[in-house]
C-alpha cells in the first residue's frame, strides 16, 4: 500500500518555531514529527510514501532524501503556486494512486494500529474510512457521528461550543479507494472534510469511521507541542527514538559528556555531542537536542531545547521551548510557556516571562525583563470571540493595550484604506476602549467614521448606508455589568461570521499586523445627520398618521441608558404622550437586581397613570420588556409569543425566525395565521443572518435577545419595536392584556447544570447515541422531539460558560416537569461517571 503524507503546512500557530521550518519538521524528542510518522508507516509495512509539500519544501527533501535511511521509498510532490487544500493536493498526484491508499497528516503524533484500520476498511468494502479517536475537547477538530455499523452519518468541521454533538473526532488519517478522487476537480483548492466527504455522503458512497485505540495528539499549538514531548517521555505513546540509547528512563546520545556532579531526574532525553556542566540540574520532562552546551549550575525544569543551543552558567529554564542555535547567557531566566525563536540571543540576567514569544534572530539586552512579545504586543487568550463578540472584565481583560492590538488585528484583515463605522455607549470605559481600538485601526491604514455615543440599532442602520466595510460597537455587556462587549459588524450591519472571527484571531495571535507609512495612516471623520437618517428609515416603515392620531399614553423606563438621549426625539415626531423615567445618562451599568426594582416601579406608574402600556429599554437600545395596562410585565417566552401573534396578525403568512430553544407557542401561532417558523442556533449572529437572508421574514429574535425587523436593519431594535407595537395596537384595536389572553397555553421551562468543557462533547455524543431511535435535531445542541403534540426536550451546551442548559416544552405541565427532572438526572449521572473515570485514569 502507498501512503500520502500531507506535509505542506506552515504551522502558523507554532510560530516562532516555524518561521523558518515547516510544521512536519518540528522536532518531538529530537526527531521531526514527519520522521515519527515514517516510522509508524514502516512498522505497518507501508514503505512507499508520497509527501505533498508547499511551505519551505527543501527542508523536508534535504532531510529524508529518497527515504532509504528510514526504510522507505520517498517521493515528493510540491504545490508551487498556491496551496490546493488537503484533498486538492492528493487529487494533484492522482496518477500515482491506482490502488487503495492511506492519507496521513504530517501534523500529529500517533501510534494507531494502521494494520487494523486497513483490515477494517477492506472488511467493510468501504470507499473511504476515516480513522477516528475520542478527545475531551473536540472544538478544534472535525466531529463525526457513525451508526451502529460504523458508517459515517454526520460530521461537522471545527464546531462552535454549542454545536458539539460528539467527542469522536477526525484525526486526519484516511484509507481511500482511488475512485473517490473522481469527485474532485483538478487544480482547485479542495478539503476532505468540507468538500469531498459531504459529496460522498450525498452520493451514498460507503464511508466508515474506524475508532482507533492508542495515542493521538494534533500538534496544533505550542501547548500541544510541549504536551506531546512530555507524553513521549512518559511512554504514553510508542515512538522510535532513533539512536538514543535508553538507561532507566534517561535517554543519552552518543559522545555526550555529563559532569558527575550534575543531577538528572528521569524521564528525560539528551541528544548527541552534548556537554552538561557541573552542578547542573535536569528535572523530569527535560529534552535536550544535539550539540547543546549547558553551563555550570544551570537548572532546567521540563524545558525543551533544540539543537545547537548554548546555555550559560546558572541559567534557569522552566517548561519553555528554546529554538535552534540560540544563545542563553549567564543567569538568564526563561519562564513557563515562553518560546525563544531560532538563532536568538538572550543577554546576561535577562528574564523572559511566562508565555512570551521571541521571534527568530532577535537580541534581548542584558538585564532586560521581557513581559511582552518581542515583535509587538502581549500574549492573550486562545479564543478571542465568544457567543456575540469579544468580551471580558473591564480594565483586567479589556485594557487599552489589548484594544489597540485587537483594533490592529481587525484592521489588518481589511484592505488598506478601508472605512469602518465605530460607535459606543455613553460610559467612560467604553470611550477609553473605543479610542484605543481606533488607534490600532488607524495604525494599519483603516479610516474611521466615528458615530461616538449612540444606540447599537443606529450603528447597524448606518453601516450599510455609509457603504463602509464593517463596524465596531463597544458597550457594557447586556448580561454582566462588570464586563465590556465589543461587537464587530459586517458591511450589512450583521455581526461578522465565524470565518471572519477566525481571520481576526489569526492576525491577533500570530502577530500578523500590518504597519503603514505616515501618509497611509487612517483618517477619522464624524458623519452628519446620523439621527435624522435613522429617523427617516424608521418613519418609512410605520403608518405615522395612525400613530399621530392615536393619542396613546405610554411610560418608558430608559434605565439610565444611551437610548434615553435618542428615543425622546423620535417619540416627539410621533406625537406620543410619553412619560419618561430614568432618562439621565449614568456611567455605571444597571445591575439585574436594580433592573427588577425599576421594572416594578414602571408597573406601578403605568397603573397609576392608566397608560396604554409601559416599556423598559435595555442593552443599549436592543432589548425591551413590555408592561401591560394593568402593570404586569411581559417578557421572555411570553413576550416572544405576544410579538409573533401581533406581527402575524398584521402580516399573515409571514416567516418568523426564532432561536432553537423558543417555546412551541410560536408554531401554534404560525399555524393559526398561516405563517412559517424558522429556528436557528441560539446565538444572535445566527438570528440576524437568517432574518436577513430568508424569504418573507417579518420578525426575528425573541424576548431574551430583542426583536429584528429585517426591512429596517438586520439587528435587534427596541426603539422601532416600541413604535411598531403602538401602531399594531391601534390598527388591531386591542390592548396588550387582550392580546395576552389570546396566546396558546404552552408550558416551557428550563434548568442549567454545571458541566466541564472536557465533558460536553462526550455528553452530546452519549445523548445522540441513546436516542438513535427517536427523532433528533442537531440545529444547536441535541433536541429530542416526542410523538404527542409539540413535546420536545433540548440539551444545549452554553457557548461561554461550563454549563449545559436543559429545556422542556409541552402543553402538559406535568410532562415538562417530569422530563426536566429525568434529563437533569441523566446529565448529572453522566457527568459524575465521566469525572469518576477521569479520576481513576489519572490515579
From TrEMBL:
The name this protein goes by in its record: Mannose-1-phosphate guanyltransferase
Domain of life: Bacteria
UniProt-listed PANTHER family: SUGAR-1-PHOSPHATE GUANYL TRANSFERASE
Entry-linked PROSITE patterns: HEXAPEP_TRANSFERASES
Residue ranges annotated for the Alpha-D-phosphohexomutase alpha/beta/alpha domain, each copy included: 383-513, 533-631, 638-746
Residue intervals of the EIF2B subunit epsilon/gamma LbH domain: 250-352
Domain Nucleotidyl transferase: 3-233
